[in-house]
Design a protein that fits this description.
The protein is mainly alpha-helical. The chain is 50% helix and 0% strand. The chain has one helix and no strands. The longest helix has 22 residues. The protein is elongated and about 45 Å long.
Length: 44
């Protein structure tokens, strides 16, 4: 990714997109809420 050729608004949009994706992943993996975590073989 070449940040030098990117406008400020594009850069901010990319950062917001990355933050939204990170939040979605954290919620999906159940951080801070162990009962929402995906089951794995170790805890079955």
């Amino acid at each position: 990714m070449d940040f030098t050729k990117m406008s400020t608004s594009e850069f901010v949009a990319k950062i917001h997109e990355a933050q939204a994706k990170d939040l979605k992943n954290k919620q999906h993996q159940g951080y801070n809420h162990p009962e929402q975590r995906l089951p794995n073989k170790q805890r079955v």
